[in-house]
């Protein structure tokens, strides 16, 4: 279900009642699967509501209000698996969905790794209580008119803050709520509800071939988490005009500082390499690296799924397995992989409660803020934008287009673009010299700027 309409408001909060209905529906579907002879079954039910507004050059471009729902049924007949989904809640449609899943399972081949996660690993709610919510539910009573006003104010602030802002890619305001129930034939029923809101702006400075584009955005679980729209616009303008009159640099090997928002991508490459799917397919440059030194001895990453107000907090993963705080990297050593039950069985290991992805990650800082990192690197490249997908997940070879700023004597000297940064991710990880305390809070991957001791930088000079 997806419709373009104008109004959207939260009104009275009926989310708990809606979760009750989804939970009751999941039990009916599980019973229907078992009546058809399934040895195991699992059901995921979700409902989402959202409002997104986009404006450009002082005019409204789009107003989109969405209401989506989805029901997914997976059944197992021994080691044979079948899945089907629907958004139609009519009884005949639900019965047909279960029947389709069962029919698929009957005609698939056995898979030794198929099946629910082990029953003993299921999360358990406190006696007589519910799973903790970790302060993630903050609906915003935002209607279309108010969202438009906020987006216009954000863009106007940016355009008015500097005469060199010649154009705009627009400003946006978004608000969304999500309800989800996961249940399986082990008797597990887990309910989750969360909200997320955002304001962003992208501006263009200069004229003709000399134009530069940049922006800024803010996201949060609650309206109160968001930066002021006017401040977002001004920040977008500052970032945009700072990129005017860029130069290239002479090709060579230099220290490279990835700003906090770009440093996340390095951690993302690590996660891709240690994920179960890449490992059992032997498509990872970190194959067989658990227990081995990958980073400097001081480097550490912890997974913290139970953070209050965390962007990706959860008491259980997508299979109902209980989450727990644990180290991903400690003392520079890769402690474990990132596994759901299927990939774990493929590897002869146990799930790490990461079906559906990692939860909140905290990368240890060993340095001060951004300015301290600039002073410490002395001379080199600050990367604030990355382009292209030049990463080989099998070999770890890394080569991406980049833009940012050249650093001389520990300070920004001038903007740069049309450059490439390259290396091998094993070497890049080993050559990390510092992680800053300037953590970008707009992601579930909490990391500050990362300084690499040396990478190949290819310019046009």
Notes on the protein architecture:
The protein is of the alpha+beta class and 461 residues long. The protein folds into two domains: 15-240, PmbA/TldD superfamily (PmbA/TldD fold, 2-Layer Sandwich), CATH 3.30.2290; 245-265 and 365-458, no CATH class. It is built from nine helices and 17 strands. The protein has helices at 15-35, 91-106, 144-160, 229-241, 260-273, 276-280, 341-347, 370-377, 425-430, and strands at residues 40-56, 59-77, 80-86, 165-184, 189-205, 212-220, 252-258, 301-303, 326-330, 333-334, 361-363, 380-387, 397-408, 411-424, 432-435, 445-446, 450-458. The strands form three sheets. It has a six-stranded antiparallel beta sheet with strand order 3-2-1-4-5-6. It has a five-stranded mixed beta barrel with strand order 7-12-13-14-17. Strand 2 and strand 3 (80-86) form a beta hairpin. Helix 3 packs parallel to helix 4 (229-241). The longest helix is centred in the first third of the chain and has 21 residues, at 15-35. It is globular, with a radius of gyration of 24 Å. The N and C termini lie far apart (53 Å). The relative contact order is 0.12. Residues 1-10 have low confidence and may be disordered.
Characteristics:
461 residues, 2 domains, disordered N terminus, 17 strands, six-stranded antiparallel beta sheet, five-stranded mixed β-barrel, globular, alpha+beta, single chain, 23% helix
Write the layout of secondary structure elements.
Blueprint: H1 15-35, E1 40-56, E2 59-77, E3 80-86, H2 91-106, H3 144-160, E4 165-184, E5 189-205, E6 212-220, H4 229-241, E7 252-258, H5 260-273, H6 276-280, E8 301-303, E9 326-330, E10 333-334, H7 341-347, E11 361-363, H8 370-377, E12 380-387, E13 397-408, E14 411-424, H9 425-430, E15 432-435, E16 445-446, E17 450-458
